[in-house]
Amino acid sequence: MRHLLSIDDVTAEEIGAIFETAAEMHDVQRREVKKLPALRGRTVINLFFEDSTRTRSSFEIAGKWLSADVINLSAKGSSASKGESLRDTVLTVTAMGVDGLVIRHPASGAPAQVAQWLHESRGAVPVVNAGDGMHEHPTQALLDAYTLQRRLGSLEGRHVAIVGDLTHSRVFRSNVKSLAKLGASVTVVAPPTLMPSGVAGWSKEAGFATSYDLDAVLAGANGRVDAVMMLRVQRERMSGGYFPSAREYAVGYGLTRDRLARLEPDTPILHPGPMNRGLEISPEAADAVASLVLDQVSAGVAVRMSVLYHLLAGEE
Ligand code: NCD
Questions:
Q1: Which residue among 8, 159, 206, 289 is least crowded, i.e. fewest CB within 10 A of its CB?
Q2: Domains of the chain
Q3: Which atom belonging to ligand 1 lies closest to the Cα atom of 131?
Q4: Is residue 316 pLDDT above 70, yes or no?
Q5: Which atom of ligand 1 is found nearest the CA of 169?
Q6: Residue of minimum CA distance from atom 1 in ligand 1
Q7: For position 148, what pLDDT does the model report?
Q8: In angstroms, what is the span from residue 123 Cα to ligand 1's centroid?
Q9: What is the structure's pLDDT at 236?
């Protein structure tokens, strides 16, 4: 693994190794003194061209707990807002001597393009995709699987329902790949307007099922559901009306109090955040005993520590 641009970059074995290291990092998180010397003397730049709360701060904490020097740069407040091209911005910051680059960008494929430019000009600077447009968000999928695996044990043969705004979701696109690699089966559920076009062929190839009927899926139409992952309705990426009203969306596709009551009480509930409470997820579901939302956040630091460690110091 030279970069982590997509879940395609990691094999099931490598995911296993990332999880093993993450479990050790997770223990560090519970210590009073959280620093490890693993990346001392290394510099990591977080380049965020899109808003973020947990992804950005968890990459920052992850780098700092590994003793790397971490610099955060966002589009607002950098020369990108003065018209500098992405290529110039990236070559400028890497010319300062950085050892790793974490990038979030609204354009699908931007991190891969950045990795390509860096190969052409500076040799191997590992690049981590922290979410690119509607393409992928590999560290999110890894932390989701890590969280679920800690709760359920092996994911082999487990069935996960991924529900919501699939069209705009990079979390879904990375998760169907990682869950398949770990042996889980997946059913994705969305209203027809938020089901990505071309999903029929892709789902066949990638081996996941699709449905428009959340109640049927939760009732076991595709087999007992072992975990439910709710996705945010991404209004900032929507130009037209994808559903008549928030209320209709919640009634059709939200994890409402009613649907929660029909789940086995210990069925894990995931959401990558930020949550629209009352839209895709009810407060009762978000705060349920079986909700793993905050476990995902804390796993996010451990998994990102592990990914940075494997990419920047893995061979030592
Ligand atoms: C996700 C993202 O940014 O893709 N959030 C996250 O990284 N925690 C999902 C979302 O924004 O809905």
A1: 289
A2: 7-136+297-312 (3.40.50.1370), 138-296 (3.40.50.1370)
A3: 4
A4: no
A5: 4
A6: 272
A7: 98
A8: 30
A9: 85
User: Where does ligand 1 bind, in terms of residues with CB under 6 Å?
Assistant: 54-55, 131, 137, 140, 170-171, 232, 234, 272-273
pLDDT tier for residue 122 given thresholds of 50, 70 and 90: low
> Over the stretch 17-66, which tens digit does the pLDDT of each residue have?
999 999 999 999 889 999 999 999 999 999 999 989 999 999 999 999 99
Tell me the CA–centroid distance for residue 59 and ligand 1, in Å.
14
Distance from residue 272's CA to the centre of ligand 1 (Å): 6
Evaluate if residue 239 carries a pLDDT over 80: no
Reported pTM: 0.96
User: What's the CA gap between 126 and 2, in Å, rounded?
Assistant: 6
